Amino acid sequence: MRHIISILLENQAGALSRVANLFSSRGFNIESLNVAPTDDAAVSRLTLVTVGSDDAILQIANQLGKLVDVVSIADMTGLDHIERELALFKVRAPENSRAQLQSILEEFGGQVLGYDEGHGTLELIGSGPEIDRFMADLADLAEIESVARSGVIAVARGSPIFDAPARD
Amino acid sequence: MGLALIELATLMNIQDETQPDPTHPLSGQIMSGAEILVQVLADEGVTTVFGYSGGAILPTYDAVFRYNEEHAAGGVEPMPLVVPANEQGAGFMAAGYARASGRVGVVIVTSGPGATNCVTPVRDCMADSIPIVIICGQVPTGAIGTDAFQEAPVTAIMGAVAKHVLLVTDPEQLEANVRTAFEIARTGRPGPVVVDVPKDVQNWEGPFRGEGRLAIPGYRQRLEAVQGNTLSEERCAEFFAMLGESKRPLIYAGGGVIKANGSPGLRALAETFEIPVVTTLMGLGCMDTTRPLSLHMLGMHGTAYANYAVDDCDLLIAMGARFDDRVAGVPAAFAAKARRVLHFDIDPSEISKVKRADWHYVGPMQPALDALVAHGSSMGFSGDFSDWHDETANLKSTYALNYDRESELVQPHYVLETMNRITGGEAIVSTGVGQHQMWAAQYCDFREPRLWLTSGSMGTMGFGLPAAIGAQFACPDKLVIDVDGDGSMRMNLGELETVTTYDLPIKVMVLNNYGDGMVMQWQRLFFKGRLSGSDKSLHKKDFVKGAEADGFPWAKRLDRKEDVPRILEEFLGFEGPAFLEVIIDKEAGVYPMVGPGLSYRDMITGDFIPNRYGAEEPEEPDASEMF
C-alpha cells in the first residue's frame, strides 16, 4: 500500500541521510521525497512516499520516531488529507499539436508555461496519481522530452496534525 | 537538497539557553575549544577517559593533560587518560566502564582511522543500549570533504550505527553539543553518541558559558512523554487482575531492567508475589541467580528448565526485554500457552514489535515496579502459585545443567563451576563471544546487576579483555575476571599489555580449544563437520609466554583436571594481573541449544541433560535462518 509520511526534521548535518537510511537498510524504495523549509528556520518538513505493508510501515515509523533529529512524524495515509505535487513537462510541440495539448491540460487543470522553438513547457498541480495519469495520457499525444516533479507534499484537513513548531 | 540541509545546519544550531550560567565558577572565562570540551566532561562527572591520540585531536589531548596537571590532588589525576593498543579497545573499555558502573563511558580519538576503529564498539553499544560518548577529532572545517589526511566521513559512517552523531561546525556551539551528547547517551533507551570536532574548533578561543544545550525539541518531547509515565492505581489493578487469573506467571527480564536500575523493583515484585523469573543474556544479574525463584537464562543456550517454564507459563511478563531472535526464534511458538503477554519497556517501538502485547507500560521501570508492589501489598494480593512453584522446582532439578563429569579432559563447565564456587557470584565477569561466553552465562551466578559484561546483540569477539579493563577502572575494588576464548583473545590481544601498563589486578582466563568453538559446533551440527576456517590446531601461539612478554607477573597453563581447584584458587587469589590458559576438551559443546529459527520444542539438550520432548538430533534449520 502507498503511504505518505510527513516528518518535521531538525536542520542538522546528516539528518536527511539518517531518515533515508532507515528505508534503504530495510530494502524499501522511496518513491518520492520532498524537503523544504517551514516557518521555523530550524526545522524542515519532509514528505516521503513509499510502498509497503501497514505493519512494515509502522515499524519504520516507530524507528523514525527514535531519530534524535526527528521532531514529529505522521503517516498521512490513514488521515483525511490533501495531497499535492507540482510537475513540469517538456514536450515536443509542433504548431498542429497544441490544440490537443490544450484540451488535455484543461481536462486535468494544467497550463502551458510557454512554447519555444517547438518545445512546450507544461505545468500541472495535482495528487501523485493524477500526475501519473496525466503523464500517461500526455505520452499518447506528444513526445515527452523531460519531466521534473516536486515530489508529493501533504497536509491534514481540519486541525493540523503537528503541534508547534510548524503547523499544517 | 541534502547539501542545502547541511548548509542550514551550520547556520541554525539552536540553543535553548543563550545566557551564560552565572552560577558556574568558570562562566565567562575565555578558553580554547579543547579546554571547553574537557571542562564539560568534568562537569558531566567524567572521571576516566579512554582513547588514543593523533593529529586532529592533539589540542584536546593537550587540554586533558593540562586539566589533570592543574587539578591533581595528592598525586591523583581527576580524569586519567587510559590509552589502549587500538581505538577499538578504547571503545570497549568505555563500554565496560559504562556497563559496570551505569555511568556514561567516554572515548577520545583522532580523525580518520581513530574514528573508524571505533565503529564496532559504537554499533555494539547501540545494539546493547550502552551509554558512551565518543569525541572524534576531525580535519579542520575548511578541509572537510577534500580527502584530507586522516579524514573519514564520520557523520555518515556513525550516523548509521550510533544513537546520534553531532558534527560541530560552529565553535560557539561546541559546549552545547558536548553537553547534549551526554544527555542523549544516558536518557531514554541509552546508547552511543558521537561528537565530531574539527581541529579548528578545538583551537578556537571564546567564552565558556557553563550551561546551554541543543534544542532537540522532538527528542525532548518524546522523552518527557515517556519519562512522565507511571502506573496508576487503575493500571496496577489491571495488572493484579491478570496476575490473579494466572496459575503459571513468569517474568521474562532483560537488559532493560539493569539499564533502568530497576533491579530492586524487579526483585521486590518477584519475591513479594512469588513469581518465577527467567532472564535474557543481557538481563543476567537483575535477579539474584542464586534465589529459588530464579530460573537463570532462557533462549538459544538458556537452561532447559527456563525454556520449559516459558513453554508452560500462562502469563508472560516481559520487562526490559525485546523478544530477540536468540530468545524467540519462532515468535508464534514462544510462550504459546501464555494467555496474555504483558510488556514493560522504555522504548515504545519495542511494544508488539515481535510478539503482540496484550497490556503494556512504557516508562521508567523502578517507579512502576514500586507502584505495583505497593498496590499488590495493600490489597493483600496472594496468588495461588504453589503448584507452579512445585513444577518449576521440579524442572530445575530434573533438567539441571550438566556435562561430562567422568571425562579425563578438562571440561570448560567444570572450570567455570569451580570458578563460580570461589567467587560466589560476586565477581564482575566479562567475556568474548562464542562457546566460552555461553558456558560462562550458564555456569556463573550473578547476585547483583552490572556484574555480567558481554556483547549480547552484536556478538563482538574481542569484547572481553578491553571491557574488563574499563570495568576495573569503574570498580577498582571489585574482582574482575575476563573469561575468554582463544579466538576472541586474539582479536584484541594488544590490550593484554594495557592491563599490566596500568597494573590492573584483572584475571584473564582463556579457555583454549584451539579454534572458534561455537563455529565448530555449528559446523558439526549443520555442515557435516567441515571445519572451514575455524580449526586452529596448527596455530603456534603460546599464550602464557605472550602474557609473560606483556608483563603479567602470574601466567600459567592448566591442562590437568585434578589441578583445576588448586590453580583456580591461586589464579583468582593473586593480588595483581594474572593470566590463565586452560586447555579444554575440544569436543565440548554448548547445551542446551535451540537451533536457529526453531522453537523450544526442538531444543536439543546433549548427552548429559534430559530432554522433555525427546528431541535427539537438531532439526536442519532452513538455510535462510542459518545465522
Labels describing this entry:
heterodimer; A: 168 residues; alpha+beta; Alpha-Beta Plaits; 2 domains; four-stranded antiparallel beta sheet; elongated; B: 627 residues; alpha/beta; Rossmann fold; 3 domains; six-stranded parallel beta sheet; 24 helices; 37% helix; globular; disordered N terminus
Task: Write a compact overview of the structure shown.
The complex is a heterodimer of chains A (168) and B (627). By secondary structure, chain A is an alpha+beta fold.
Q: How many distinct domains of chain A?
A: 2
CATH homologous superfamily title of the largest domain in chain B: Thiamin diphosphate (ThDP)-binding fold, Pyr/PP domains
Mean pLDDT of chain B: 94
Task: Quickly name the level 1 CATH class of the largest domain in chain A.
Answer: Alpha Beta
Low-confidence stretches of chain B: 1-18
CATH topology of the largest domain in chain A: Alpha-Beta Plaits
CATH class of the largest domain in chain B: Alpha Beta
